[in-house]
Amino acid sequence: MLKLKNFLVLMGAAMLFLGVSGTVLAADGAALYKAKTCWSCHGKDAKSPLMPMYPTLAGQNADYALNQMKDIKSGKRNNGQTAAMKGVMGLVSDAEMSAIADWLGSL
Ligand code: HEC
User: Fold this and answer.
1) How far is residue 55 CA from its own chain's centroid?
2) I need a surface site. Which of 1, 48, 84, 103 has the fewest CB within 10 A?
3) Does residue 59 contact residue 107 with C-beta atoms inside 8 Å?
4) How many CB atoms lie under 10 A from the CB of residue 100?
């Protein structure tokens, strides 16, 4: 009985988590940028990259940024240091990339 109760509590927590993050993630590019670890390479403010060769993203054209993300994710863009970023792109959907791109463009 206790086990079943724990299970239900866990399920509830998981659903709450998914529900809440789903809403935040779809709408908020800034939150996504943090949650999906983009900041670890591109900098918390999107303009102080970890490595000098990594691009500054703040203020980038949103459509351009979105296309680059899609191409890096699919492997179509495979130059320079894209391999470093490709692994992370499995974490983001098209809608999430779009929200992040809009936010980057607004900086
Ligand atoms: C492990 C490090 C790393 C992570 C994590 C990372 N990136 Fe990148 N990103 C790079 C590197 C390196 C490049 C440049 C690739 C090249 O040399 O062509 C890049 C390129 C880009 C570009 C293209 C910039 C341009 O001007 O063409 C965008 C947009 C971008 N990243 C967004 C993101 C977003 C959004 C996330 C999170 C979902 C993310 N990156 C996570 C390392 C990373």
Assistant:
1) 16
2) 1
3) yes
4) 26
CA of 5 from ligand 1 middle (Å) equals 43
- CA atoms of 27 and 42, how far apart (whole Å): 21
Cα(107) to ligand 1 centroid in Å equals: 16
Ligand 1 mean position, distance from CA 82 (Å): 7
Residue range 17-30, pLDDT digits in tens? 555 554 444 459 99
Q: Give the range of the structural domain holding residue 64, as residue numbers without chain letter.
A: 2-106
CA of 28 to the centre of ligand 1 (A): 19
Question: Residue of the nearest CA to atom 41 in ligand 1?
Answer: 38
Q: For residue range 24-69, list pLDDT tens digits in order.
A: 444 599 999 999 999 999 999 999 999 999 999 999 999 999 999 9
Q: Which pTM does this prediction carry?
A: 0.82
Which residue is closest in CA terms to ligand 1's atom 26? 55
Count: domains in the chain:
1
